[in-house]
Amino acid sequence: MNGFRLLNRATAKLAVQLEPWAAIYYLRHQEEITFEHPQDQQGYYLAVVWDAESIQVFAEGGFDTYPLVRINGQVVEPFNDFDVAQT
């Protein structure tokens, strides 16, 4: 597996945005997030720290598919804050 691991050691809540998919995950203090791509996909991750509570992670190169995402070992889905009104 090609992977990226991030541990929130400093803040009560850390927003992690995964690009280019604009997926957002939130980590509580001492939670760890991992992104995993298959070994046959070659690429790299680039992290940009905007402030103490916000990090953007870019999956670059040959990562063509969405990674497997885990928080503390549990597979998770991104947070969706879009509220679509049904009429």
Sum up the structure in keywords.
0% helix; mainly beta; four-stranded antiparallel β-sheet; 8 strands
Q: What report would you give on this structure?
A:
The protein is mainly beta and 87 residues long. It contains no helices and eight strands. The protein has one domain (2-66). The strands form two sheets. It has a four-stranded antiparallel beta sheet, with no helix packed on it. Strands 3-2-6-5 form a four-stranded mixed beta sheet, with no helix packed on it. β5 and β6 (54-61) form a beta hairpin.
Question: Nutshell version of this structure?
Answer:
This protein has 87 residues and is an all-beta fold.
Element string (H = helix, E = strand): EEEEEEEE
Q: What is the overall shape?
A: globular
Strand order of the largest sheet: 1-4-7-8
Q: What is the CA-atom radius of gyration, in angstroms? A: 14 Å
Content-based structural category:
mainly beta
Distance between the termini: 44 Å
Amount of helix: under 10%
Mean pLDDT, to the nearest integer, reads 89
Model regions low in confidence, pLDDT < 50 over at least 5 residues: none
Number of H- or I-type helical stretches? 0
Note the beta-strand portion.
Answer: over 45%
Number of domains: 1
Number of strands: 8
Describe the biggest sheet?
4 strands, antiparallel
